[in-house]
Write a structure and sequence with these properties.
- By secondary structure, the chain is mainly β.
- 13% of the residues lie in helices and 49% in strands.
- It has one domain: Porin (Beta Barrel).
- The chain contains six helices and 14 strands.
- Strands 1-2-3-4-5-6-7-8-9-10-11-12-13-14 form a 14-stranded antiparallel β-barrel.
């Protein structure tokens, strides 16, 4: 399968390789070591209670029906069921700050818009005959996050997944755990759909961390392999009015150029904006290059309401 098809076309699950059931366990050890040795280094408050990859950010937070490589761990674990026999490792660097206009005008909101950075390392392993799984570790300004995702395809065009995340908040000296349930369906080679229920547990600690139960539907439309559209409406029934409205959406598009270069743009409305730790409106843009064994991605996001903030995101993923 070509690099281009990895992104724009559905790939039927392949048969597991003989003896590949050990790949999942052996591949995860390095990432666990990274998590254990760096988790307690931060000292400031957490400004973001979730994380977006460069591609997701450029699409305005959309893309649940078609995440690429390790994006599936955070965005939609069930999609990893269609990435069988692939192993991918990625790193991401993100920095965020109040918008230049906000700082120049001395707007009172500048004091509430965070300035900081975060790092992420992730690993996705699809070689196990039992299930496909991934893990990501994120180092934040005031804590850390670990995400897990596992999926399995029951029929060639449908995958189901489970996700878990653990967020350590240094200011509160505690760890909050949450879970997600997801499903992906490939209707045709041009249309894919997804359902993601995030923050299933919604405990009191989860609410204090901004983790409210969310129901999201994802749709991907492929126009001749050149233009890809994503639409992700979502509903957060118990979201307090002070934080935002329960209904919102993310929408984005990708333009494929020269088979391996992708230009991206998107917008979001009443959606979780990680850089400000609450819900807001804004837009994103970015680009990516998908090489033979490695991909590079850049994403930029601007929150325009309620707290103006900019985020720059850079990432690279090696896949086999």
């Amino acid at each position: 399968m070509s690099n281009r098809n990895l992104l724009i076309r559905y790939q039927a699950p392949a048969k597991p390789r003989p003896g590949s059931n050990f790949g999942f366990f052996s591949g995860f050890l390095p990432l666990f070591l990274i998590a254990l040795t760096t988790e307690y280094l931060a000292s400031r408050d957490i400004f973001a209670s979730d994380f977006q990859s460069p591609r997701t950010m450029a699409l305005g937070g959309a893309g649940r029906a078609g995440p690429l490589l390790n994006d599936a761990i955070l965005l939609n674990p069930s999609f990893a069921a269609f990435l069988k026999e692939r192993v991918s490792a990625g790193v991401t660097y993100q920095t965020f700050a109040p918008t230049p206009a906000t700082e120049a005008l001395g707007d009172s909101t500048a004091g509430t818009a965070a300035t900081g950075k975060s790092y992420q390392a992730s690993l996705q392993d699809g070689r196990s005959p039992l299930f496909e799984a991934g893990i990501s570790y994120t180092h934040l300004e005031g804590g850390s996050m670990i995400h897990f995702g596992a999926s399995r395809s029951f029929i060639q065009r449908m995958g189901c997944g489970l996700g878990a995340k653990f967020i350590r908040d240094n200011s509160l000296e505690r760890v909050t755990g949450e879970a997600s349930l997801s499903a992906t369906g490939v209707i045709t080679s041009e249309i894919q759909t997804a359902l993601v229920i995030d923050n299933l547990l919604q405990t009191q600690e989860s609410k204090e961390q901004g983790l409210y139960r969310e129901f999201a539907i994802g749709a991907k439309f492929n126009l001749m392999g050149i233009l890809l559209f994503y639409a992700d409406p979502h509903y957060t029934p118990e979201l307090p009015k002070a934080l935002g409205r329960p209904f919102g959406y993310e929408a984005g598009a990708e333009l494929v150029m020269f088979q391996d270069i992708f230009l991206r743009a998107g917008l979001f409305k009443d959606s979780k904006a990680p850089s400000i730790g609450t819900w807001g409106d804004g837009w994103g843009m970015g680009a990516g290059w998908l090489g033979p064994k490695i991909s590079f991605d850049f994403g930029f996001s601007r929150v325009v309401d309620p707290i103006p903030s900019d985020t720059w995101n850079f990432g690279a993923t090696l896949y086999l």
